[in-house]
Write a structure and sequence with these properties.
The chain is α/β, with parallel strands linked by helices. 27% of the residues lie in helices and 16% in strands. It has a single domain (24-334), classed as TIM Barrel, CATH 3.20.20. α1 (57-69) runs parallel beside α2 (88-96).
Length: 337
């Protein structure tokens, strides 16, 4: 059965010098992706020469076990496209079985989701976020490089039928590409009782021109929602960065992830580890810190725990996106946005 409970407040023992406590790990399983989204990998995935191998299952078990001992209770599997990892189900089961881990989630482009949703749920995945950047097939293909909107819609239904407790949709907000679809998205989430989050497109090292052409602030959505009577909700324990609005007439929620908004980083509760074992204290930090040397033996647990606690105290108060500095992030698939 999938895990979905939330813990008592105050359990997390990973804290920085700015009063933030960390209970949520975004773990990349691979940087490989089979989509060609215009805002991330418009030319498709290209393997870097000499790139190290992805973390093994034992390395992942030691890594997540250390975080769990320090109070972290939620793990989201990301990529690239995490479900392309051959051992995906075994990894999910391994993490689900770690003491202290209470929620295992995945973010996916929806590839083969219809046929695999039940196996995901059976492996312990209780929450899934599915990318869906348009409800119009031609636009979906233009943005993602694939004509698979119908498959995604079927996959959403399959996840709900499999009993997943949380099925959410992600849509990158893109000026001139999908910013006129708000009414359609609202009608869709209300009809199906779903949550959809609009994500501001973020500037990375390889997309400054694209960002300049297509960025819209999250206020573009929030102002329209508030005018329609949608109501801002209190943030739940362990939640990601989205500000959520509830439909005043019943079913359906809209979230907004706006990294360029004021004080976006103040409520940060998440850490990231790349597929090769590098800790990223921020998605837009300058570099990852290699944890792999401390993932080779179970006997290294105490040293690993101590290092994690020390490193987290060095987390910067905020990203530097407003200064046009996206750190060392070449594109979002490289770490797992």
């Amino acid at each position: 059965m999938s895990k979905i409970e939330t813990p008592d407040a105050g359990e997390a023992r990973l804290a920085d010098r700015h009063g933030r406590r960390f209970e949520y790990l975004r773990l990349s399983l691979t940087d490989v992706c089979n989509f060609r989204c215009s805002y991330c990998l418009p030319d498709g995935y290209r393997k870097a020469k000499g790139a190290p191998a992805n973390l093994s299952i034992d390395e992942i078990r030691r890594l997540v076990g250390a975080f769990a001992e320090l109070g972290l209770w939620k793990v989201r599997l990301t990529g690239g496209e995490p479900t392309l990892r051959r051992e995906f189900l075994e990894i999910a089961r391994t993490i689900t079985d770690i003491q202290g881990i209470r929620k295992v989630a995945v973010t996916t482009n929806g590839y083969r989701l219809t046929e695999r949703a039940q196996s995901f749920a059976d492996a312990g995945i209780g929450a899934i976020n599915i990318s869906m950047d348009s409800l119009q097939p031609q636009r979906f293909r233009a943005i993602t490089g694939h004509d698979r909107l119908g498959e995604i819609l079927e996959g959403i239904a399959a996840c709900r039928a499999a009993g997943m407790s949380s099925v959410k949709l992600n849509s990158v907000l893109l000026k001139g590409l999908n910013d006129d679809e708000l009414d359609d998205f609202l009608a869709f989430v209300v009809e199906h009782g779903l949550t959809l989050r609009f994500i501001e497109v973020m500037r990375t090292n390889d997309n400054p021109g694209y960002f300049a052409a297509h960025h819209l602030p999250g206020t573009y959505i929030s102002e329209q929602l508030e005018a329609l009577g949608w109501q801002k909700q209190a943030r739940q324990a362990g939640a990601g960065p989205a500000i959520e609005y509830a439909n005043p007439d019943g079913l359906g929620r809209i979230g907004i992830i706006a990294p360029y908004s004021k004080d976006f980083c103040a409520s940060c509760n998440r850490l990231r580890v790349s597929a090769t074992g590098k800790l990223h204290l921020c998605l837009f930090g300058d570099a990852g810190i290699d944890l792999r040397p401390l993932l080779q033996q179970d006997s290294q647990k105490d040293e690993l725990n101590a290092r994690l606690q020390r490193l987290v105290t060095t987390k910067a108060p905020a990203h530097l996106l407003h200064q046009g500095n996206s750190g060392a992030t070449p594109h979002l698939a490289s770490i797992g946005g």
